[in-house]
Q: What sequence folds into this?
């Protein structure tokens, strides 16, 4: 076979860290640049409900930047691990290309979710236009849904894949063709979407360009996937979201975008 899954001491000697360091650095630098772009976008747009007037193409560009910022730190180990399934005689340039292709497939999966997010944000805006006082109930529904999903078996399955993808890599080794790495990245990305879509749903309630919320969610995602007790943290976050669902009913000002719009449109009426 042209490619194998290295293991044990032989893998370590075949893959010295100096060969892997450029990929690590590249992904972390890309994540940092994505944060810079995201923060600049947020400073120009502020925190608002819905898509804040963005058309679908512009929204997807913003969404990809956000996902790169939030997800690259947690997906970097998986991308590097996948690169280690390539035999040592593969050149550095080929390894870099394959990692880049993997990451592209990963972002394709998240871009697909971005289409659903765009639809949800449009629905949010229309709901607030039709019923300005519904912000607190929308916030309740978002946090309750996100909290409940954190405690489901599907969340556990997807999180288990993201935390321990090696068994899937054995399956991916059977993929053939020039688009293999793209397919692997997209397949892993779909598991990641399955793991994190509930967390991202919270942005509908707190503002899709809420940088503080994005940073908090990025930390949660990183710890869920990489910390020793990430699975326990996932359940704790689910309980916290359930508590937040009740809290926003009592204190709608905890949702600055929805609460502000509800007050302004209610006053206009």
A:
């Amino acid at each position: 076979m042209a490619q194998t899954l290295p293991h044990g001491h032989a893998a370590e000697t075949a893959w010295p860290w100096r060969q892997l360091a450029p990929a690590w650095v590249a992904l972390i630098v890309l994540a940092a640049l994505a944060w810079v772009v995201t923060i600049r976008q947020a400073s120009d747009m502020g925190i608002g409900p819905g898509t804040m007037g963005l058309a679908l193409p512009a929204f997807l560009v913003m969404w990809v930047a956000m996902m790169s910022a939030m997800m690259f730190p947690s997906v970097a180990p998986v991308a590097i691990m996948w690169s280690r399934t390539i035999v040592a005689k593969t050149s550095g340039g080929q390894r870099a290309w394959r990692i880049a292709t993997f990451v592209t497939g990963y972002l394709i999966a998240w871009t697909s979710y971005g289409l659903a997010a765009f639809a949800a944000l449009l629905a949010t805006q229309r709901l607030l236009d039709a019923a300005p006082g519904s912000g607190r109930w929308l916030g309740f529904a978002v946090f309750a849904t996100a909290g409940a999903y954190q405690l489901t078996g599907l969340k556990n399955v997807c999180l288990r894949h993201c935390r321990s993808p090696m068994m899937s890599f054995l399956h991916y080794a059977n993929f053939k063709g020039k688009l293999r790495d793209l397919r692997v990245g997209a397949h892993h990305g779909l598991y990641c979407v399955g793991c994190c879509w509930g967390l991202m749903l919270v942005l509908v309630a707190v503002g899709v360009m809420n940088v503080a919320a994005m940073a908090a969610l990025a930390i949660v995602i990183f710890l869920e996937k990489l910390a020793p007790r990430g699975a326990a943290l996932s359940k704790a976050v689910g309980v916290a979201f359930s508590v937040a669902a009740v809290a926003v009913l009592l204190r709608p000002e905890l949702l600055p975008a929805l609460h502000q719009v509800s007050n302004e449109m209610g006053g206009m009426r």
About this structure: The radius of gyration is 20 Å. The chain has a mean pLDDT of 84. The chain is about 80% helix and 0% strand. The first helix runs from residue 8 to 14.
